[in-house]
C-alpha cells in the first residue's frame, strides 16, 4: 500500500483519548483535483457536550500532572512526528494548498513548536512580592504564581493545519490545561495526526480532544459553555467578532488576519527585497495571514523594482503540489479561487493595471501583480488571502507609513532600507504587532510573540506568550507574627 493509498480511509475523531466514529461523515477532498482523500466524522452537539464533560476531568488531570511529565510527553510527541515526518508532510500537502516542499517545512516547525513548549513548561514562574513597601505591612510576606485556566477551546484554520494546531495544543499541555481542538473542516487530518502523536506519547486520556465537522452541526456550546475558560481562535475578522459577542466572560486569544504592507526605500538591496517579497506573497498560494499583500516602493526605484518583481513572479512554477519542482499549488477550493478572481476583476474594472497573472484554472489562481489599484477596491483594504500583490509608488517614507496604516488591520509589516534612522522611524510609526527590517512581512519563528492590533486580533501566540495567556495569576500573602516564642 502506498502512502497516498494509506491516507484514503475512513477516520475517527479523537474524543477525550478515544477514537470515535459519528453518525454522519464529511469528505476530505484534495483541492488540486477534488479527489477524495478520506472521511471524518461530522460531530454533533451531543459529541461536543461529551467532550466538554470529559475535559472537566481532563483539566484536573492536566493540572495535577508534574512539570517533568508534561515535558516528557511533549518531547515524545515531537519525536513521534519526526519519526513519521513524511507521512505528516504528505497529509498536509494532500488535504491543503501547500506544496510538498512547503509541507515539509511546516512539519519541521511543528516539531520545533512542541520542543519549545517542553522547554517553556519549566519556566512558568512567579515572583516574591515586597509587601513591606506599604506602610503597615511590615509583618507580611508572599509571592504570586501562575495556574492553568482549565479548559481551552482551539479553533484552527486550514492554511497551517498542523503547526497552528500545535501552537495551541503545545502551550496548553505545557501549562497544565485540557484542550478541545476544532480544526477547519477542509483540513482535519493533520490535527488528528497530532492527536495520534500525543496518544503515542502517553498523554493521559481526557486532556485532549480533536472534534471534526461543521459548526452548524455542533451548535454553539464550544463557544458559550460556562466550563470553557478560554477560546484561542485563528481565522477571519467577522468570525472572530461573532465569537466575542457570543462567548461571554472568557479569556480570548484571537488572530484575525491582515493585508500586510512592505515598504521598499530607494537605498534597499533590490535583489534581496524582490526575492523576499515574492516568496512572502505567494507562499501557500498566498493563503497566509502574514503574506505580502501591499508593496509601497519609493518612486526613484519604482520602475526598476516592478520590473524585477514581475520577472521573478513569472518564473514561479505553478502545478502539482506533490512535485519537488513546484513552487505554488492550488488554493484551498475553487470557490476561494473564484472569489480572488472576482476581486482582481473588480480592481481592473475600476482602472487597476494587471502586470501579470489574473488567470484562474479550477482551484489554481496564478501569481498576480497589479498597480494603480483604486482605494475603493477590496484589494486595497481587505485581506485577499490569495496569491495577489498590489504595488504602489510613494514619494517618501512618511507617505508609505500613512498608507500602510490606513487600513483596519495591523499584524506585521516589512521595510527594506540600509538607513537605521529610517528603519527605527518606521518601527515606531507602523501600527502593527511586528516589524521585519530587511525582510518580508511573513517572517516568523515559533518562539517570538505573534499577534496584531486593530482588526488583526487580541493577545499573542508564540509559546512563551501563549503560556501567559493560558494561565492565571494567584497571589499568596502571609501575615507573620512578630512575637517570638
From TrEMBL:
Key word Transferase present: no
A Pfam family: Aldedh
GO terms for MF: lactaldehyde dehydrogenase (NAD+) activity
Its EC number(s): 1.2.1.97
Enzyme class: oxidoreductase
Keywords linked to the UniProt accession: Oxidoreductase
Catalytic activity field: (2S)-3-sulfolactaldehyde + NAD(+) + H2O = (2S)-3-sulfolactate + NADH + 2 H(+)
SUPFAM superfamilies: ALDH-like
Domain Aldehyde dehydrogenase: 19-476
Family, similarity comment: Belongs to the aldehyde dehydrogenase family.
Function: Part of the sulfo-TAL (or sulfo-SFT) pathway, a D-sulfoquinovose degradation pathway that produces sulfolactate (SL). Catalyzes the oxidation of 3-sulfolactaldehyde (SLA) to sulfolactate (SL).
UniProt name for this protein: 3-sulfolactaldehyde dehydrogenase
Annotated source species: Peribacillus simplex
Amino acid at each position: 500500500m502506498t502512502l497516498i493509498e494509506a491516507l484514503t480511509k475512513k477516520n475517527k475523531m479523537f474524543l477525550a483519548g478515544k477514537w470515535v466514529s459519528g453518525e454522519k461523515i464529511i469528505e476530505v477532498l484534495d483541492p488540486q483535483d477534488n479527489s477524495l482523500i478520506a472521511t471524518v466524522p461530522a460531530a454533533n452537539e451531543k459529541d461536543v457536550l461529551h467532550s466538554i464533560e470529559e475535559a472537566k476531568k481532563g483539566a484536573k488531570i492536566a493540572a495535577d500532572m508534574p512539570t517533568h511529565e508534561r515535558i516528557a510527553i511533549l518531547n515524545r510527541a515531537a519525536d513521534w512526528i519526526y519519526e513519521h515526518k513524511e507521512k505528516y508532510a504528505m497529509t498536509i500537502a494532500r488535504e491543503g494548498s501547500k506544496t510538498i516542499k512547503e509541507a515539509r517545512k511546516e512539519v519541521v516547525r511543528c516539531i520545533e513548536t512542541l520542543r519549545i513548549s517542553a522547554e517553556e513548561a519549566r519556566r512558568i514562574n512567579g515572583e516574591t512580592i515586597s509587601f513591606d513597601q506599604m506602610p503597615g505591612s511590615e509583618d507580611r510576606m508572599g509571592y504570586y504564581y501562575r495556574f492553568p485556566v482549565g479548559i481551552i477551546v482551539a479553533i484552527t484554520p486550514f492554511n497551517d493545519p498542523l503547526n497552528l494546531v500545535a501552537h495551541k495544543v503545545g502551550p496548553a499541555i505545557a501549562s497544565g490545561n485540557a484542550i478541545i481542538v476544532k480544526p477547519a473542516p477542509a483540513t482535519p487530518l493533520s490535527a488528528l495526526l497530532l492527536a495520534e502523536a500525543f496518544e503515542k506519547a502517553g498523554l493521559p486520556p481526557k486532556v485532549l480532544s480533536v472534534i471534526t465537522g461543521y459548526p452548524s452541526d455542533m451548535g454553539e456550546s464550544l463557544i458559550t459553555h460556562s466550563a470553557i475558560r478560554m477560546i484561542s481562535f485563528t481565522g477571519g475578522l467577522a468570525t472572530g467578532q461573532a465569537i466575542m459577542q457570543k462567548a461571554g466572560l472568557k479569556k480570548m486569544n484571537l488572530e484575525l488576519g491582515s493585508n500586510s504592507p512592505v515598504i521598499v526605500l530607494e537605498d534597499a538591496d533590490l535583489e534581496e527585497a524582490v526575492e523576499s517579497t515574492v516568496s512572502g506573497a505567494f507562499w501557500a498560494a498566498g493563503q497566509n495571514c502574514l503574506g505580502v499583500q501591499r508593496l509601497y516602493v519609493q518612486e526613484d526605484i519604482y520602475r526598476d523594482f516592478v520590473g524585477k518583481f514581475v520577472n521573478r513572479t513569472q518564473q514561479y512554477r505553478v502545478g502539482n503540489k506533490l512535485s519537488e519542482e513546484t513552487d505554488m499549488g492550488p488554493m484551498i477550493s475553487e470557490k476561494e479561487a473564484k472569489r480572488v478572481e472576482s476581486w482582481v476583476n473588480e480592481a481592473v474594472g475600476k482602472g487597476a493595471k494587471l502586470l501579470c497573472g489574473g488567470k484562474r484554472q479550477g482551484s489554481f489562481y496564478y501569481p498576480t501583480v497589479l498597480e494603480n489599484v483604486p482605494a475603493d477596491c477590496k484589494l486595497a483594504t481587505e485581506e485577499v488571502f490569495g496569491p495577489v500583490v498590489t504595488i504602489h509608488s510613494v514619494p517618501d517614507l512618511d507617505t508609505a507609513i500613512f498608507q500602510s496604516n490606513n487600513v483596519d488591520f495591523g499584524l506585521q509589516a516589512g521595510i527594506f532600507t540600509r538607513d537605521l534612522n529610517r528603519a527605527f522611524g518606521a518601527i515606531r510609526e507602523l501600527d502593527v504587532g511586528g516589524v521585519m527590517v530587511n525582510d518580508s512581512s511573513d517572517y516568523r519563528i515559533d518562539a517570538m510573540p505573534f499577534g496584531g492590533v486593530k482588526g488583526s486580533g487580541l493577545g499573542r501566540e508564540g509559546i512563551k506568550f501563549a503560556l501567559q495567556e493560558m494561565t492565571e495569576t494567584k497571589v499568596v500573602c502571609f501575615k507573620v507574627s512578630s512575637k517570638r516564642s
